[in-house]
Specification:
Oligomer: single chain
Structural class: mainly alpha
Order of helices and strands: HHHHHHH
Number of helices: 7
CATH architecture of the largest domain: Orthogonal Bundle
Strand content: under 5%
Radius of gyration: 17 Å
């Protein structure tokens, strides 16, 4: 089990750090969350079948999200207004990118679903669980968000 856990840590630490950082105000908190993820997994070795699979990353990222949101709530309780009030992740995009500008123009929830699906590789089924929706509703929402994004990008291209 120790070797498997080390392998998981080596494979996913960086991605999970980046993911947890989207929720939390500093790198130290993100590192704590990643450690909590691997502690959680070490107590449930049967929960990981194979180290290198989309299913494994998906599972670890969901644990990371829940741990990060728990940490954010804890920080808010102790720090008050010093911590950002949104619990949804704020995905970092290059400031001057046409894609970034178009993403900023679509609704927050649609943007987050697109980023979870395509930037993080989270399945529509898991996104549905996170948002309390059906997978079909998530697919429709993502389809509409992509259409909206495409429209924004084509409008931006015409303006230049």
């Amino acid at each position: 089990m120790k070797k498997k856990l080390e392998q998981l840590y080596e494979m996913y630490r960086g991605r999970l750090m980046a993911y947890a950082s989207r929720f939390l105000p500093n790198e130290a908190d993100a590192e704590d969350v990643v450690q909590e993820v691997f502690l959680y997994v070490s107590q449930r070795p049967e929960s990981i079948r194979t180290a290198e699979s989309a299913e494994t990353y998906h599972y670890l990222s969901i644990i990371a999200k829940h741990k990060a949101l728990d940490r954010l709530r804890e920080l808010k309780r102790f720090a008050g207004d010093d911590i950002p009030q949104e619990e949804e992740p704020a995905y970092e995009m290059p400031e001057e990118s046409p894609l970034a500008e178009a993403l900023r123009q679509i609704p927050e929830r649609a943007r987050q679903m697109l980023l979870l699906r395509y930037a993080d590789g989270i399945s529509t089924r898991e996104i549905a669980r996170l948002y309390g929706m059906t997978p079909d509703a998530v697919r429709r929402a993502i389809h509409r968000a992509k259409a909206d994004l495409k429209k924004k990008l084509s409008q931006e291209g015409k303006e230049e």
